[in-house]
Design a protein that fits this description.
The protein is α/β, with parallel strands linked by helices. It contains five helices and ten strands. α3 runs parallel beside α4.
Length: 225
């Protein structure tokens, strides 16, 4: 039986990603310090490597010990919208701008997924499809999944027009429950990144409503019990 540790950084931890300089030494040091605080080594961590140059935002990749360190000090790594591992000690890392970083943990089968549920993914039913990937590949029972959600901007400032103006978090909850996830098994960080100064928000920075640009991150790792 495995246990899981999930953590979310804040502005105080520094930016966890710079799109234009993926080997930014300050960002790498921010990551190293923050991960160390959670007893995770940078070299044991794999970053979800996103790309918007695609029409498929539900690409899922299984990683293990061989992929440790990918994307943590450079831009290396295959593109994916979520990473999945069955290997304890392999930490999954996802920086986010305005999207919902979502950890899904199957304690029965020892499977961990870190999924990027943003506007593009949610428009393609990314919440449902993330769960379906675990069901199809690992025999996961959705009702046994434990889920953690990162903060996100409220629907007032970031509605998803193609989903009837639903908010980001609203769409995530709806899709996860439709996939069979039990509401009581979802741990939500309800902070609104548009107004909470503890979290970065790219969209609000672009609007001039936040003074600092950056990304916060979610990390998740399984430990053998």
């Amino acid at each position: 039986m495995a246990s899981v540790r999930v953590a979310i950084s804040t502005v105080a931890d520094g930016s966890m990603y710079t799109p234009t300089a993926q080997a930014d030494p300050d960002v790498i040091e921010n990551r190293r310090i923050w991960l160390t605080q959670h007893l995770i080594a940078l070299e044991d961590t794999v970053r979800v490597h996103l790309s918007y140059e695609t029409d498929n935002f539900c690409r899922y990749r299984i990683v293990g010990a061989a992929e440790k360190g990918e994307g943590m000090q450079n831009s290396y790594g295959e593109y994916a919208d979520a990473l999945v591992t069955t290997t304890p000690g392999v930490a999954l890392f996802l920086p986010v701008a305005d999207c919902v970083a979502t950890t899904l943990f199957d304690p029965d089968n020892g499977v961990l997924m870190l999924s990027h549920l943003g506007r593009h993914s949610l428009e393609q039913d990314g919440g449902v499809r993330s769960v379906a990937f675990l069901v199809q590949n690992f025999g996961t029972k959705p009702e046994n999944l434990r889920v953690w959600l990162s903060p996100a901007p409220g629907k007032e400032v970031y509605p998803i027009f193609k989903l009837g103006n639903s908010g980001m978090k609203e769409a995530v909850f709806e899709q996860l429950q439709r996939a069979g996830v039990t509401l009581d098994n979802i741990t939500d960080n309800p902070a609104d990144t548009a107004t909470d100064e503890n979290y970065f928000s790219h969209s609000e920075f672009i609007k001039g409503n936040k003074t600092s640009e950056g990304r916060f991150a979610m990390v998740a790792v399984m430990r053998s019990v």
